[in-house]
């Protein structure tokens, strides 16, 4: 990873789950669920770093920082969890619904499908983090060879579910990973 990019990501990666929160906010277009501890890290990112983190989306960093500047003093709308010494990085969980009718009522079908697709990437330690970092910075070379193997094996039907708002990223990362030695 480029030293400058790594430095830019460092404050966000130092807060457990923060990169994932930013990624989910970006995907869903909502920043209201970012925890205060993550907001603090977001406000510490230098203005020079944001174009490196989001090279193709100059508007999202301003949305993030504005939300965080406004909400950091009074606390974000969601509670900050207590951090225990044995906590693991955020990984979306796969929950099984009780019926199709229940799914339709709450509109969870796509989310569960996304979680099922992500589970193959979650089986490789650090892979979800590498994909998120690569996606947010549009730099596919940030994905390592072990993660690339999981990406190459990911079903084609999963890509549109995971990257609904960006149809250009999957072919880029798949092409890169198919040429990476594993």
UniProtKB/TrEMBL annotation:
Residues 8-68, 116-178 form the Prolamin-like domain. InterPro entries: Prolamin-like (IPR008502). It holds the Pfam family Prolamin_like. Keywords: Signal. GO terms for biological process: double fertilization forming a zygote and endosperm; regulation of double fertilization forming a zygote and endosperm; regulation of protein localization to cell surface. GO terms for cellular component: extracellular region; vesicle. This is Prolamin-like domain-containing protein.
């Amino acid at each position: 990873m480029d030293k400058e990019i790594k430095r830019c990501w460092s404050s966000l990666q130092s807060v457990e789950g923060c990169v994932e929160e930013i990624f989910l906010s970006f995907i869903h277009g909502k920043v209201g669920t970012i925890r205060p501890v993550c907001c603090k890290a977001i406000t510490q990112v230098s203005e020079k770093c944001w174009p490196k983190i989001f090279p193709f989306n100059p508007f999202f960093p301003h949305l993030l920082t504005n939300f965080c500047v406004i909400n950091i003093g009074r606390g974000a709308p969601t509670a900050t969890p207590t951090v225990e010494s044995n906590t693991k990085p955020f990984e979306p969980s796969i929950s099984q619904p009780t019926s199709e009718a229940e799914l339709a009522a709450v509109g969870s079908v796509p989310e569960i499908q996304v979680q099922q697709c992500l589970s193959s990437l979650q089986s490789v330690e650090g892979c979800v983090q590498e994909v998120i970092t690569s996606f947010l910075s549009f730099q596919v070379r940030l994905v390592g060879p072990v993660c690339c193997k999981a990406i190459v094996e990911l079903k084609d039907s999963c890509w549109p579910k995971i990257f609904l708002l960006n149809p250009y990223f999957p072919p880029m990362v798949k092409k890169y990973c198919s040429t990476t030695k594993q």
